[in-house]
Amino acid sequence: MLKPEFRHFNRASCEIAKHGDNDTLPFDLDVRFCGDQAEALASIAYGFYNELSNSKAQKDNHERIAEQRIYCERLVAPSGPTGFRVVTKIHPFWNIYLNGLSIAIAEVLEPRRSESAHSYRFLSDGGTELFDSQQSWRAFKESTVSDVVSFGDAGVVVQTDISSFYEHISHHYIENFISALGGEGVQVSLQVNALLSKFSAGRSFGLPVGGQGARVLAELFLNQIDEALTMRGVRWHRYVDDYVLIASDTAGAYQALAELAQCLMDYGLTLNKTKTALLSSKHYCDYVHAQLGDNDGEVTKLRSIDLKFDPYSDNPGENYELLRETVESLEVRRLLNRELEKALPDSFLVTQIGRTLRLHSPVVALDLARTLLNEQNLHAFRASFPTIMRGVANLRSDIRFKTIHDALDGLLDDIPQHSGHLLQPDTSLLHYLRCLRFSSTPKRGRFVRQLFDSNRHNAVHRGCIDCWRGWKDRAAFNFLRNHWAELTPECQRLYWVASFDFGDEGEKARLQVRRAIGQSWALGIELPFDEKKDKGKLAGHPRGAEPRFARVYADWAEKFVNVERVGNAN
């Protein structure tokens, strides 16, 4: 039975700290904040949930959220070499709230799902890992091949996907499906509906792309389609919105496709006709083997390598060394040059190369970075631009690569001149800014200031402020201080963290606005917190024992900066 608990919100906070708030965006300080203050944030979330779910007026579950000012921002992200999609950046608390509700939903949903659904299989005891990493897209493809082989040469396969799936999911259906889970499903469904409406600019359809909550809700929605297909006798496999249907002959394959189209139409969705194909079993198996790189040992190894290196594992040194030795054994430079010869490079392979940069020696890493960031090459690798920037940021932040930092800075500073068009998508720009924050140069100083003045997105403004914080730019700090009242709460919070790098001047700046932050940063749902009476009361408390979001953030900021200083000194 569905019943959100404190542990669900706490797990949501810790998961965000481990994996980020959105898989298309770079980590920012809010991600660290979620991890360091997981218990306090979960406390506020759980207290608010209890207040709503226990309300005598059921409509409060929707209306209390609907009346709140909830920061969220729709950003453009690249999708493939020529496509784009919209992703959503959400206020850290409300991201935790949605994800906490979704984790409670996933717990109830998972036992009801078919084994043919391969995506985002929930781990009830996975800690910060919400989903089974063994259930990957690659594993999905390999499962389809195993199933197709059982049909022999006569088998026919349909490969298809749903057209603009995330954008077209109906909130009304999501609400109904959550309610049907039982327990406190009705209360949760009303809250989720209100949140989705906020994140969709008031529209009644669409999920906020990039977060874990949306993944759970998407699987909840598609579980209805899965059940309908099974009831109709269709042999199917699915990974998110990618379907593989298998039949013994062409007529059966066409009928299965028609059944899928009918099931989707019942919920207002359609198939992507440009990505629908009927293939013989041999053709399909050959295609998948080529897609997975099974005919090239080095490509296969690079594609399948697990780069989820966990520095907090029981044996991080050994895990890291095994990864490094595996990558060093590959001819990565040769593989990269081979991709350059193609009219359309393999974006996933280039992405893997970007992810492995930190596993090479400094000399090899710089050579690969020069190839990736070269004026003639970067446009060809545009589908992997965010991942390339992540790889370069890893090098730039790692003291082991200090000998190549100046060279990397020179490569980065040239990008706006020769490849400025690649910085047009919002998420690509954010990843680029993340690379700039380590040191200041005249070029990037001018670039960041012009960007702050001309760009309208909060997320981009925060990226600029983070650069100024990293550079300890006193002129920029004074500029922000004089424009405090014009800053959004999201930018004010990052400015507050930056103020600790400016000694007495920063302290005076904080004193000036300390009384204002309680109102400016308020969520709008907290109850007062009496430090003397309620100190230490977080989990399992009456609502009056909650901390306030603004106070939690302000206290965390000072502790974080002190820890950061100790780390830098060491």
Properties at a glance:
two-stranded antiparallel ribbon; 6 strands; alpha+beta; 570 residues
* Gross morphology: globular
Average pLDDT: 89
Radius of gyration: 25 Å
Helix content: 55-70%
Per DSSP E runs of 2 or more residues, the count of β-strands stands at 6
Strand line-up in the sheet with most strands? 4-5-3-6
* End-to-end C-alpha gap: 50 Å
**Helix/strand class:** alpha+beta
* Main sheet overview: 4 strands, antiparallel
Q: Strand portion, in percent?
A: 5-15%
Low-confidence stretches: 309-316, 534-542
**Tally of DSSP helical segments:** 28
Can you offer a commentary on this structure?
This protein is an alpha+beta fold. It is built from 28 helices and six strands. α3 (38-53) crosses α5 (92-109) and α16 packs parallel to α19.
Helix-strand blueprint:
Layout: H1 6-19, H2 29-36, H3 38-53, H4 60-66, E1 72-79, E2 83-90, H5 92-109, H6 137-149, E3 156-161, H7 165-168, H8 171-179, H9 185-199, H10 212-231, E4 235-239, E5 242-247, H11 250-265, E6 277-280, H12 281-291, H13 297-304, H14 316-328, H15 332-340, H16 347-355, H17 362-373, H18 375-378, H19 385-397, H20 405-419, H21 426-436, H22 442-454, H23 458-471, H24 474-482, H25 489-499, H26 503-520, H27 531-534, H28 549-569
Antiparallel strand pairs: 1-2, 3-5, 3-6, 4-5
Helix pairs in contact: 1-2, 1-3, 1-5, 3-5, 4-9, 5-10, 6-12, 8-9, 8-10, 15-17, 16-19, 17-20, 19-21, 21-23, 22-23, 23-25, 25-26
